[in-house]
Amino acid sequence: MRFVVIGHQSTVVIDGGTGPLTMRYPTPAGLMTDVAYALGNLHQGVETTIVWPTDPGPIFTGREAMRDLIIAHGWKTQATEGGWFTCTGPGMVHLCVAEWVNQDDPMIHGPGLDSGIAYRLRDWHARMGAHYRHTPGVAAHVSMRAVNLTKGVKWAPYRDHSALPIWEPPAAITPLSYRARNMSLLTEPLSTWDTRTAHLAALAAVELPRGPLTNTGPDPIGPGYVRWTVARTDLPWWMKTLLPAADRQGCRWTGRATAALVDGYRPIEIIDSWTAPGGRLLRKWAEQLRDYANEGEHGGPIAKRAYTEAVGLFATRTGAIQRRDWHHLVIDEANASTLRRIARVESIGLLPQVVNVDSITYAGEWSPGPWAGLNDLLGVGPNMGNLRFEGTKQ
Fold it and tell me: Above 60 in pLDDT, residue 164?
């Protein structure tokens, strides 16, 4: 593999894996706008990423013009909404015009210019097993497939509208959302804990179906959706308030992770299910992403964008992995993790004021002394799966 960043003054080339081999040489005259030279000479027969970090000049007048220019030189490509072009021909080149990439992309617009971009691209490939391209979410899907998660995985089993069309799942599982009605009357400060690293842990822990779901009635055979009811009426606050609303028969649709959590507090009866054999298909990939996030200053921001965008892209019709059921079940696993923490805190008489997709907020001023027990119940710590204390506001 090879990573090339073409600047006005110099060109940076990094070959190989994690070794320090770096070549920097003056940019030849005209190379800044010479697409033919970049495609024909810089890749040298290996898969290559080439980035122009600054505006290369008036020859690149737009994405369609760039596509036509690439095709004119004998390569195949398609115009995209961003600044990336995957070009196939004598080799494979991922071509990027940084000026056309969103400014919030931490890979392309992170600290440093030529060498900074090149090393970030190299480090992503070394850890995640695939070239970065387009966005953190798209790159995440490509790397998931490159990791070869497990044999028998169907990346888009519902394209042909099989037993359970992916666009008509039995339930739309959404992130937890709650805001206390007395918020405007509170005089206490509010302390917030960030749950996003726990969501990365959910990717490692969640059990996902390999292939399409089938109706398995009251006897689920693997991960998927379950419809259940609970006979007891003495439900804790979090069950009554944070779970999906019951239907007219008193039943709720959730993933199996949330159903198992509820069953641990109040026995449930499963009425119906859509499930399939599976396992922790994303565990290896999530652990690789965790290790990448802990490497250097740039890993964390890129990793956070990668896993949040990847989960969202599961629910699209155009991604490299089209699994809306995976989208829902990852959310269900994250919901179950958050609910478990809230239930532990409820056991000492505290209820949250705000619960949303990436944080939990309680009334009170945080300090190491009186709140130490709360941190233990919430699972605060430095590791993947732990919450982070975000701060206190009046």
Answer: no
302 with 389, same domain? yes
In sequence order, the 6+-apart residues with CB closer than 8 A to the CB of 160 are: none
* The pLDDT value given to residue 38: 80
In this structure, the answer to whether residues 92 and 189 fall within a common structural domain is no
Query: Between the CA of residue 136 and those of 34, 289, 300, what are the distances in Å?
Result: 28, 12, 12
Q: Which of 99, 134, 169 is the last residue of a domain?
A: 134
Residue 185 and residue 68 share a domain: no
Residue 363 falls within a domain, yes or no? Answer: yes
Angstrom CA distances, 254 to 166, 251, 271, stand at 16, 10, 12
Q: Which one of 134, 155, 188 terminates a domain? A: 134
CA-CA-CA-CA torsion sign (85, 87, 92, 97):
negative
299: containing domain: 178-393
Number of domains forming the structure of the chain: 2
Residue 229 has pLDDT above 90, yes or no: yes
Q: Which candidate, 110, 124, 47, 55, places its Cα nearest to that of 83?
A: 55
Over the stretch 275-330, which tens digit does the pLDDT of each residue have? 999 999 999 899 899 888 887 677 888 888 898 899 999 988 777 888 889 999 99
- Predicted local distance difference test score (pLDDT) of residue 279: 92
What's residue 176's pLDDT?
A: 92
Q: What are phi and psi of 141, to 5 degrees?
A: -65, -40
Kindly state the DSSP code that residue 357 receives in the 8-state scheme.
T
Residues 67 and 212 both lie in one domain: no
Q: At what angle do helices 299-313 and 283-293 cross, to 10 degrees?
A: 150
Q: What is the mean pLDDT of residues 218-234?
A: 92
User: How many C-beta atoms surround the C-beta of residue 283 within 10 A?
Assistant: 17
